[in-house]
């Protein structure tokens, strides 16, 4: 079945960096756009970034533009999110997904930005 396994979250100070990974299985990864979302406590999922198949285009939410970079490695069925200059408002659980699949969210990975 389709699975998304996120990792790489941690607690960091403001201005710090993290690299999140999303290992996928159960679908032809290279054919799908990959999306990153985040969820702050008691809030809905918020879209963060997306990357099209073959990495031909990326797009970012205004709140992370210039600080986050999405990438993919089709040979590893894995998507990444490089996060630099982290701010307290980036705190949340980060999830990856692909659209058009009958799949649930993964367990996510917790990112906490705090001094």
Question: What is the strand and helix layout of this fold?
Answer:
Elements: E1 3-7, E2 11-12, E3 18-25, E4 34-39, E5 45-51, E6 58-60, E7 68-73, E8 78-83, E9 92-97, E10 109-113
Parallel strand pairs: 2-10
Antiparallel strand pairs: 1-3, 3-8, 4-5, 4-9, 5-6, 7-8, 9-10
Strand content: over 45%
Terminal residue distance: 40 Å
Q: Low-confidence segments, ≥5 residues, pLDDT <50?
A: none
Number of strands: 10
Q: Specify the overall morphology.
A: globular
How would you sum up this structure in a few lines?
This protein has 115 residues and is mainly beta. Helix content is 0%, strand content 47%.
Report on the structure:
By secondary structure, the chain is an all-beta fold. About 0% of the residues lie in helices and about 45% in strands. It is built from no helices and 10 strands. The strands form 2 sheets. Strands 2-10-9-4-5-6 form a 6-stranded mixed sheet, with no helix packed on it. Strands 1-3-8-7 form a 4-stranded antiparallel sheet, with no helix packed on it. Strand 5 and strand 6 form a beta hairpin. The mean pLDDT is about 95.
What descriptors fit this protein?
mainly beta, 6-stranded mixed sheet, 4-stranded antiparallel sheet
């Amino acid at each position: 079945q389709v699975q998304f396994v996120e990792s790489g979250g941690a607690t960091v100070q403001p201005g710090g960096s993290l690299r999140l990974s999303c290992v996928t299985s159960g679908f032809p990864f290279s054919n799908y756009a990959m999306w990153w979302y985040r969820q702050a406590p008691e809030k809905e999922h918020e879209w963060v970034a997306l990357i099209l198949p073959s990495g031909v285009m990326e797009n970012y939410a205004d709140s992370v533009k210039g600080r986050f970079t999405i990438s993919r490695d089709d040979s590893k069925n894995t998507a990444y999110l490089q996060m630099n200059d982290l701010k307290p408002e980036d705190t949340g659980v980060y999830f990856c997904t692909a659209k058009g699949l009958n799949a649930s969210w993964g367990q996510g990975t917790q990112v906490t930005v705090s001094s």
